[in-house]
Amino acid sequence: MTERIEGHGGELALAALRAYGVREMFTLSGGHVFPLYDAAHKTGFPLYDVRHEQSAVFAAEAVAKLQRRPGLAVLTAGPGVTNGISGLTSAYFNASPVLVMGGRAPQFRWGSGSLQEMDHLPLVAPVTKHAETVFSADDIPRAVAAALTTALTPHRGPVFLDFPLEAIFSTGDADLPAGPALAPIEADPEEVAKAAALIAGAQRPVVIAGSDVYAGDAVAALRAAAEALDVPVFTNGMGRGALPPEHPLAFAKARRVALKGADVVVVVGTPLDFRLSFGDFGDATVVHIVDAPSQRATHVQPAVAPAGDLRAILTTLAEYTGDRADHTDWVAQLRTAEDAAKARDAEEMAAETDPIRPARVYGELRKVLARDAITIGDGGDFVSYAGRYLEPAQPGTWLDPGPYGCLGTGMGYAMGARVTHPDRQICVLMGDGAAGFSLMDVESLVRQKLPVVMVVGNNGIWGLEKHPMRAMYGYDVAADLQPELRYDQVVTALGGAGETVAKAADLGPALHRAFDAGVPYLVNVITDPADAYPRSSNLA
């Protein structure tokens, strides 16, 4: 029997949110959304507030990515919503099921110049799967349920609802939504069979698995398919860790050799974008496996592109019984290249240089990070090294800005990660440029007792801009930051702790202190500004 609910707009919204598995709210205080706070306060619904709305949306996205369920950000009208648009856009590019709820000026006075009166929908519509203004309290549960169903339906993504003052503050009644009921998208069996035959029959196949493999809960199916077909696997995004580093088919360092030599490249759950040479793999045959027809590439023509539930597709690949080639020599060739690259990396990660090279920072981090640590990348040059030197051991442990490349995710992602995993290590890696976007939200972490470790690679420049600009023009402008700035003192002033490290030998002890501190702690590492962007990176 359908349950009938009643209450003010905030209570009706919260009841629907709970039905869809939402368990917390990220926000920055605003009068337009007070009823949502009232509903949360009266029912013990966790509420976390931030110092900039972008951090609220990034925190909601971290929850959505890590837990594979909806994340919620509540933003006040006007500038509250516009401050969150970069977060919405990142969620859109990352296929993260985030719901942003916005306040809105009263409809009965629309056009009269109310405080923060603006129509948000034209701004957010291009970067959401669904955007709607809900004009009555009675309609709020229906709208929440419809928006979250859309957000969770592959290809996943963010949605937006806003509520005029008279709708969210007034009372109403409605049926309580039953919760998500999502029918899986079934791929064309002939396309899946063709993909399986191409992979099995290839002499030198390679699989590249991305974030949608994790989002679609298809990690186990990926491993089964790789093992059954004996195919080497590379990963990016939240696909990282799908196969642990010690797995005989897991590779990270030999991607250039693999893609140069492969005759079939299988890309699963990630777009054929700039991170993957736009799908141009020379003479190799391309198989692109996606979670929805909308994700099929239009700028290249793969040999086959099965679209549907990734777990089902990969399970079918694992069950393939047709003819297959022997991939033993190919896997061994890549393992030789992988081991050689690891040996080179080990030398770089142990380098005793003054100033410190970024590789050494990651060499020391590898010694202290637990296998289930959540690692968050927020930066350009410094974080690109993280993609090269860190190898997540478990799926769902790597967060980065994704293909949109938006800086400022760090503190929001850290908040969402700490809420998700209260007992794990949370490590945020930031360049000194990225630190300027969100470091003030350390205060939010301190106040709400959410300890994380931050490691800043402080080279005093915008590294991804300074070096290329000098190469192009012989000079650079607008590419310098204050040298050796004490970001650790900023964190200390906000109630956390930290220290500056300028000698490689001091890195290890500093990192141990950081992870033992129990408060937000920043290790400010003075790194070599001459170090250029690494030649290759597994970032994404």
Automatic annotation (TrEMBL):
<feature type="domain" description="Thiamine pyrophosphate enzyme central">
    <location>
        <begin position="192"/>
        <end position="317"/>
    </location>
</feature>
<dbReference type="Pfam" id="PF02775">
    <property type="entry name" value="TPP_enzyme_C"/>
</dbReference>
<dbReference type="InterPro" id="IPR012001">
    <property type="entry name" value="Thiamin_PyroP_enz_TPP-bd_dom"/>
</dbReference>
<dbReference type="InterPro" id="IPR045229">
    <property type="entry name" value="TPP_enz"/>
</dbReference>
<feature type="domain" description="Thiamine pyrophosphate enzyme TPP-binding">
    <location>
        <begin position="378"/>
        <end position="525"/>
    </location>
</feature>
<dbReference type="Pfam" id="PF00205">
    <property type="entry name" value="TPP_enzyme_M"/>
</dbReference>
<dbReference type="Pfam" id="PF02776">
    <property type="entry name" value="TPP_enzyme_N"/>
</dbReference>
<keyword id="KW-0786">Thiamine pyrophosphate</keyword>
<feature type="domain" description="Thiamine pyrophosphate enzyme N-terminal TPP-binding">
    <location>
        <begin position="9"/>
        <end position="121"/>
    </location>
</feature>
<dbReference type="InterPro" id="IPR029035">
    <property type="entry name" value="DHS-like_NAD/FAD-binding_dom"/>
</dbReference>
<dbReference type="InterPro" id="IPR012000">
    <property type="entry name" value="Thiamin_PyroP_enz_cen_dom"/>
</dbReference>
<keyword id="KW-0808">Transferase</keyword>
<protein>
    <submittedName>
        <fullName>Acetolactate synthase</fullName>
        <ecNumber>2.2.1.6</ecNumber>
    </submittedName>
</protein>
<dbReference type="InterPro" id="IPR011766">
    <property type="entry name" value="TPP_enzyme_TPP-bd"/>
</dbReference>
<dbReference type="GO" id="GO:0003984">
    <property type="term" value="F:acetolactate synthase activity"/>
</dbReference>
<dbReference type="InterPro" id="IPR029061">
    <property type="entry name" value="THDP-binding"/>
</dbReference>
<comment type="similarity">
    <text>Belongs to the TPP enzyme family.</text>
</comment>
